[in-house]
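Following the same procedure, sequence and fold were stored together, as reproduced here.

>
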Amino acid sequence: MPMPTHQLELPALYGSSPLGFLAALGTLHLTTHILDEAPRLSWRGPDAPAVLHTHHPLTHQTLADLLTTQLPAQPNKGPLAVAPGILDQSRHPEPGSPNDPLQMPIDEALTRLRGHAKAERDHDDNRAHWFTSLINTLSLTPGKADKGAPRKTKGPPRGTLYTRTTPYFGRSGQMTLPNNWTKAAQHCLENPTHLHAALTRWQRVDDYAGANLDHLSTGDAHMVSHGKATQQGVPGATWLALHGFTAFRLTGNTNRPQATSWDTSNHAFTWPIWHPPHTATTLTTLLEHPDARTQTPNPTRLHNLGITALYTAPRARLPYGDGPLEPGRRITLKLDGPRHVKPRRHTRPHRSQK
């Protein structure tokens, strides 16, 4: 496949921002679904915007118009247009079931997954991929009715076990993945400029919470002109970022959920910025590489992977649930070898010591 020859810089999608990074991934995955030839994504450098590489020239407006075609016609009935049937389902009726309908009984989840997997084999359907990037069938949680109940026997807990969802969605209050997707899509349908602004210059909307991907969306009183605390999310960037969740594989071992680029020990998102353009497929390999997920990176190994910087953003913890991702912080590169050690006489110095 020939390399794309056209480049479009996306000035609002900075790699140092968790929301900007995820929105760039969402843009890549959506355009992969739309365009005949696979686009690629790279970055101008650390603390710099994303660049979309395509085989045909695009402007910000034509790209925004293409993305608009992927908005659902009726967000409250089917919020995820590229994979119908994943988000448009009701909360499980069993007492004690989680509020989010994507946290479903494990037996039901496995039945759905088998159906999606068969459709993928038979018809190249993409819903199995979306299902497994949003719903974790490898890590379970008991229903509310089962929590705190006395254990009378040894062995696994009794009662219904429910699936978990991706950790990239921070749940607080009555938030669910489907209603966050719905609200972002509704804003973009009501105001078509939101997707163009997501790529070029963000427009914050009063009383829109976002999906806990951006610390500025919390809208503290000192950050807004009218001096009153209000939520100020970015609907276009949030809608794109939600589609970026599909880049991260969900794994686990029953009660310990795992996800690509997510550090469960401190609830933090760690991500790389790279220079060589990547397709959605090759990007998955890069994100899952151990050197792209470490808090103690080796600069030589990162250079060999084409990675120019690593960032991390922990999730704020609130009394009533998850808070937003904090601002991205660039991880300091570990020195490649003991630079303070002088080479012995009559020996050539190691490359890292020159």
Observations:
- Confidence is low (pLDDT under 50) at residues 151-157, 221-226, 335-354.
